[in-house]
Design a protein that fits this description.
This protein has 461 residues and is mainly α. 80% of the residues lie in helices and 0% in strands. Helix 2 runs parallel beside helix 6.
């Protein structure tokens, strides 16, 4: 059975239509996950209090760090699978699945055990308020128990996307989100005969939702006899292949570090914003809520471009790789640009979702948006070019470009220009950083040696 008949080939057909259709479930999944987090925050914040919300916010910083590294490894596995599918090499794809599954199980177990034991130490180093500390410990310990299921669910979703299937992960992501939202009040308040678990109940809902959804998705894949499933004769692939293992680590860690680099830059930025008082912080917080949704098309298109390019690299269709890059840039400019125009047209109304009409921060938030939101078009362009470059295995240049744009341009500009421009220096650092990121990504795409990169040595195939 060949890959083209078992999975979705992204090496043929109209690129624009295929890219949009493939990215839509990814985009919808990103929106669902954001809404899930917001709904859970409402349950915790409104009914368990500010200390509980502070506890989950701090605990989620630790969780984000761990998921960033796992995301990078998952992306490496996804690209490897995509290249194998493009080359119509199902055997290699199954070897990747086996080796990466073993790797994920090992990492998940180590993180779960180590994190559970080290919870007090980690929270102590976050300098949390004393009233939130025991709540965070209760929440985080359950989250660490949920970690293997969260890692596993993320891993299977990314592997399926690498094989050209974005629909199946989305269906089971919907199941996970619905379960998480529905189970939160049941476990928090002890409804339907369940014990009242308080803040630990919110984490328990996440555990159950991910465990059930992961089990259901794996069962579905075996029921459908998916070509990437490991049948009895394929269990030998669970013994890690050294070449694949090295590729997962060497290529995955830099991709995970990109998320960490971005999150650390935002932490430094909020520290700068804090200097200007509560009104400015509130204005920035409201504006950044909108930015999350403006950036979602960029991340979704970037993920779709990465998979499409990886399959075409595997198939040797370099003509399509070039067109995928150009079409991807066009799509991201159109989608992100449309959202930017909507924000400009309804700036006050959109911010009014987060700030009351009489808030002193409302006008300032409008001012921030006027300066910042158009820059996300450039950021989206950088994501697309970087996704194409990474699809061959060139993972270090996109990381370096991001470090330069954020840590050598955006952060220094915000700091150096503060005396002259005050808070406006912070807002203008966003367009400058995004423009530099797009410029560097486009330049490396045009003149870099990424076409010669390899995810895995040819002999290992």
């Amino acid at each position: 059975m060949d890959a083209q008949s078992s999975g979705r080939s992204l090496t043929e057909g109209a690129i624009g239509r295929t890219l949009v259709l493939f990215s839509l479930p990814i985009l919808a999944g990103n929106v669902l996950q954001s809404l899930n987090g917001s709904v859970n925050a409402v349950w915790v914040g409104r009914y368990l209090g500010e200390a509980a919300l502070t506890a989950t916010s701090n605990a989620n910083l630790i969780l984000f760090f761990l998921l960033s590294l796992v995301f990078g490894i998952g992306m490496a596995a996804s690209i490897l699978v995509g290249q194998a599918i493009g080359a119509n090499d199902v055997a290699l794809a199954r070897r990747v699945v086996g080796s990466s599954a073993t790797f994920f199980v090992g990492v998940a177990a180590a993180c779960a055990i180590g994190g559970w034991l080290a919870t007090p130490w980690m929270l102590a180093h976050l300098s949390m308020p004393p009233d939130a500390l025991p709540l965070a410990a209760d929440y985080l310990r359950v989250i660490f128990l949920a970690l293997p299921f969260m890692f596993g669910f993320t891993y299977v979703m990314m592997v399926l996307r690498g094989a050209g299937d974005a629909r199946t992960p989305f269906v089971f992501l919907v199941l996970s989100v619905v379960l998480d939202i529905a189970l939160n009040p049941l476990f928090i308040f002890g409804l339907a005969g369940l014990p009242a678990m308080g803040i630990a109940g919110s984490a328990t809902a996440t555990l159950v939702a991910n465990a059930v959804s992961l089990a259901a998705m794996v069962a579905y894949l075996y029921w459908k006899r998916h070509f990437l499933r490991l049948a009895r004769g394929d269990l030998r692939h669970l013994v890690p292949d050294p070449a694949i293992f090295r590729s997962l680590v060497a290529k995955g860690l830099p991709m995970g570090l990109q998320m960490i680099v971005m999150s650390l830059a935002m932490i430094v930025m909020i520290a700068f914003v804090n200097r200007y008082g509560s009104h400015t912080v509130a204005a920035y917080g409201a504006a950044s809520q909108l930015w999350t949704y403006i950036q979602m098309p960029g991340f979704a298109i970037g993920a779709a471009v990465s998979t499409m390019a990886a399959q075409n690299v595997g198939a040797g269709r370099w003509d399509r790789v070039e067109r995928i890059a150009h079409v991807g840039v066009g799509v991201i400019v159109a989608l992100t640009g449309a959202l930017v125009l909507v924000i400009y047209a309804f700036n006050r109304g959109a911010l009014g979702l987060f700030l009351p009409d009489d808030s002193n921060a409302l006008a300032q938030a409008q001012h921030i948006n006027a300066i910042v939101v158009w820059s996300f078009v450039f950021f989206g362009v950088a994501l697309v070019f970087s996704a194409v470059v990474r699809s061959t295995g060139a993972v270090i240049p996109p990381l370096v470009n991001l470090v330069v744009a954020l840590w050598l341009v955006r952060i220094p500009f915000a700091w150096l220009m503060t005396d002259a421009w005050q808070a406006d220096a912070l807002w203008w650092s966003f367009p400058l950083g995004s423009f530099v990121a797009a410029l560097l990504a486009a330049a490396y795409y045009r003149w870099g040696r990424w076409r010669n990169a390899r995810m895995i040595a040819p002999a290992a195939r």
